[in-house]
Amino acid sequence: xxxxxxxxxxxxxxxxxxxxxxxxxxxxxxxxxxxxxxxxxxxxxxxxxxxxxxxxxxxxxxxxxxxxxxxxxxxxxxxxxxxxxxxxxxxxxxxxxxxxxxxxxxxxxxxxxxxxxxxxxxxxxxxxxxxxxxxxxxxxxxxxxxxxxxxxxxxxxxxxxxxxxxxxxxxxxxxxxxxxxxxxxxxxxxxxxxxxxxxxxxxxxxxxxxxxxxxxxxxxxxxxxxxxxxxxxxxxxxxxxxxxxxxxxxxxxxxxxxxxxxxxxxxxxxxxxxxxxxxxxxxxxxxxxxxxxxxxxxxxxxxxxxxxxxxxxxxxxxxxxxxxxxxxxxxxx
Length: 333
Fold this sequence. Notes:
Layout (H helix, E strand, L loop, with lengths): L4 E9 L6 E9 L6 E7 L12 H10 L5 E5 L16 H16 L1 E2 L8 H13 L15 E2 L3 E9 L1 H7 L11 E6 L6 H5 L3 H21 L11 E6 L7 H22 L6 H10 E6 L10 H12 L12 E2 L11
Parallel strand pairs: 3-4, 3-7, 7-8, 8-9, 9-10, 10-11
Antiparallel strand pairs: 1-2, 2-4, 5-6
């Protein structure tokens, strides 16, 4: 469903140190409860990464009018955000958690050093006039911008941004229903972006996939609980990580997930285990696309739309599909 969208450019505070983070927030008019949300996390700031890039622009244009809330923000040291890039990504994880906290509390609090109380009131008046707030809401009693209830959240990390988003455990925000879309994950150069934390990030991803596979295999035992899914999208001509390296790593993730499942629940081995891993981990290879995705951006949004908006039926393959695909993902042979 396409909704009218209210866009707001603002600054919010990082929960780590109060650092002002530049953000662009898009909200759907009169969004009902149980809405989806997207958070876009950009590439490496010292190399020019910030939210005004081609992938974030494509995803925002494609999805902002179809979800309750979307947030594009600049990590510390990027764009007009304060601070500087850390050596390990730990500070940037706190920046991202600041955005997730906002969704969790259903309240956007603007940075007090960048926005006055009059600024907040003016925004609320505009929102009410355009139907983004009910007429019976007393805006003088609000201390921030109200947001809809979110139950499904996709962290869309691009390059370095996917490293940062991978550091957030889904169970930190169980009510938000966190899933992961890792675009051009810089697997072969994580050591240069996060120094001694490389192993930690890769282990976090492996644990996320393995835990999700076990939960999917359990089936009815997990009814009512969100199980995080992970999607990788990579070009076969990626500038920093060769496709053979991606394939080896993805195969390792699958193998580790199956091994963990077989140890914990040996009665679920075989086709049930394979299906569970398929649900937990999906990979997309886009032929001849490189790390920058120039003039290939729509293939990224196509992949995300087909994966995140598609809930597979029992027994349907959902893993490993090329970009020469139908709208519904299929098992890659």
